Structures are given as structure tokens and as C-alpha cells.
Amino acid sequence: MDEVVDRLSLKHVVVAIEYCSSSQQPWNARLLLPKLFGDMESFILFSANPDRVTRRESELQIVMDVIESKGSEWWTLGLQGATTNWTRLNDPLACIDAESQLTTSRQVAVQQGLYTRAVNFETRILTDVRHQTAPEMQELQATMERLASLYNSVLVWTRTSPTFSKSEAKDGMMNASLRRQRTFLEMALEKVQKKKLTFKDISEVSAYGDEAMTHLRDALDGLNGPTLVVAVMADRLVRHAKHLPDLKEVLVQQQSQLVSILWDPLLFRAEDASEAGREWVTGYPLPPFHELTLTVLVPDT
């Protein structure tokens, strides 16, 4: 690395700070790095981690092609957890390692940001509805009305996980997360006959074990015939793949189905998504139990 640094002088150093999500924005839509690469005849790129340049594993070769077409180099930290050892990504084997790491790290990043995006989305849509600026909600309401007409009952499901926070509401009061979920679902089901609706609000219950499934089974047992279960996100019912068979068993036994509503107008109009086949969602991350759901709408990642 010393010999690489020796080729540089201070006047040739450009520090790039990019305020842009490379997970959300493709390479050709970003303004900073593609322009810098285009303006420089030859350069050495240093990054603290490969995902600081792009989180998209499919773009790694695009970036490398640009770098190598200019006779340039890309050196990075962070490959395989290294914090002090630099790796030259022009090496094909190192590039393969980086691509594998990007695949894993992007999925981790997506999952870590899932609930923040969900909360922001619910809040935005509810605010838009209050200001009468959310035509997407009208489409969702029409879709849910059509789906609900196929079932005897609709179970509106909300759940929060266990928490040790002292700020959580107690004495039977609904906490902020449950209120937000329920308000969002009530809005989505506004056109459904009220006599069909049954609300199940569960606080401080984990979906990693059997407890949530026990609540679901008990709730469905008390309803009349085939039921449409509606949740903001499907993992409000189950959080681990090993419990998916349990969820499927409960739904099949009760002749019921699950609708997971988590959507964004950039991907689907609500009325289209209810009819969407797998080919509509190629390239987008789906919840692991899409086969159990009538409607799955996913936020842009």
C-alpha cells in the first residue's frame, strides 16, 4: 500500500462524500461518483468498504469496467472484515469475494431498515390521506373491498414485540405502534362492511415462537367460516422460517388467507398488485411466504 500512496500527491487527492443511497438508486442515476469517474483520466479509488461505492452486487462489475477502462485501480478496506488490510479489487478473485460480501450485506441492511421504512411509509400515507393527496389509498380500499367480499369474516391483525421500554403504554392502553398499524388498516378497509371486521390487537408478544400462532388460531376459531387475515406486514404473525408451516396449517385448517399490506406506488398500483404473478416482482425482495398471501406489496429497497 505504501508504494500506491507514494504515487499520489496531496493536490491529486479528492475526498468524495456522497449523500445518496446506492441501494435505492442505480449507478446511472447517481450524480457524484459516475461524474467523478468520467471527469478523471486515471485515478486510484480508496474506499472504507466496497459497499461505500455500491451496495448492489450486480453493479460491481459495472464499476470495475469503468475503473479498468481508464487504467485505474480500486483499493478497499472492509473485505472479509479486514479493517487495516487493503485489497485491490482489480484482482478477479478479490472482486468475486466483494460481490459475495455485497450480496449478504445488502440483505442485512435491508432488514435493519425494514421497520423504519414501514413506519415512515404508514405515517406518510396516513398524512396524505388526511390532506386528500393519496389516490393510492383509494385503489387499496377498492382492492380490499373486492378481496373481503370473498370471505365471511375479516380479521384485522396488529402486534408488537416484547419490549423493556418504560415508556410503553400500560393498563390496557394501546401503544403507538399498535395505534399506527390499526389506523392504517382501518383506513385500508374503510369500504369493507363493518360487521365483517374483527380486530385482534396483541401487545408484547413475540412472533419467533408459538405464542402468536396460538393467538391467531384462537381468533380464527371464534369467527364464522373462511376468514381474510389482514396485517400491515406478514411478519406481524410469524418471524422465523421454521414457523411458516405452522402458519400455513392454521390458515388451511380455517379455510383462510393472509394479506400483507406493505406497499409503495413506485412498484405497484394496489389494484394491479392483487392480480400480480411472480413475473411482476422479479428482482424485488419478497417475504418468504408469498405463496400464502393474496396481496404482497413491498417497499422500494
Describe the structure.
By secondary structure, this protein is an alpha/beta fold. The protein is 37% helix and 12% strand. Strand 4 (153-159), helix 7 and strand 5 form a beta-alpha-beta unit. It is elongated and about 75 Å long. The protein starts with a helix and ends in a 5-residue tail after the last strand. The relative contact order is 0.10.
Quick overview:
37% of the residues lie in helices and 12% in strands.
Give the SSE map:
Blueprint: H1 2-5, H2 32-39, E1 44-47, H3 60-69, E2 73-76, E3 87-88, H4 92-112, H5 114-130, H6 135-148, E4 153-159, H7 176-188, E5 197-202, H8 211-221, E6 227-231, H9 244-253, E7 257-260, H10 270-273, E8 293-296
Parallel strand pairs: 1-2, 4-5, 4-6, 6-7, 7-8
Antiparallel strand pairs: 2-3
Helix pairs in contact: 5-7
Stated plainly, the CATH topology of the largest domain is called Rossmann fold
Q: What would you say the CATH architecture of the largest domain is? A: 3-Layer(aba) Sandwich
Number of E strands:
8
Q: List the strand order in the largest sheet.
A: 5-4-6-7-8
Q: Quick one: CATH superfamily of the largest domain?
A: Resolvase, N-terminal catalytic domain
- CATH class label of the largest domain: Alpha Beta
The SS-based structural class is alpha/beta
The helical percent reads: 25-40%
H-E string: HHEHEEHHHEHEHEHEHE
Which value, in Å, is the CA radius of gyration? 24 Å
SS strand fraction: 5-15%
Largest sheet: 5 strands, parallel
How would you state the average pLDDT, rounded?
A: 79
Beginning-to-end CA distance, first to last residue: 35 Å
What's the helix count?
10
Shape: elongated
Low-confidence segments: 263-301
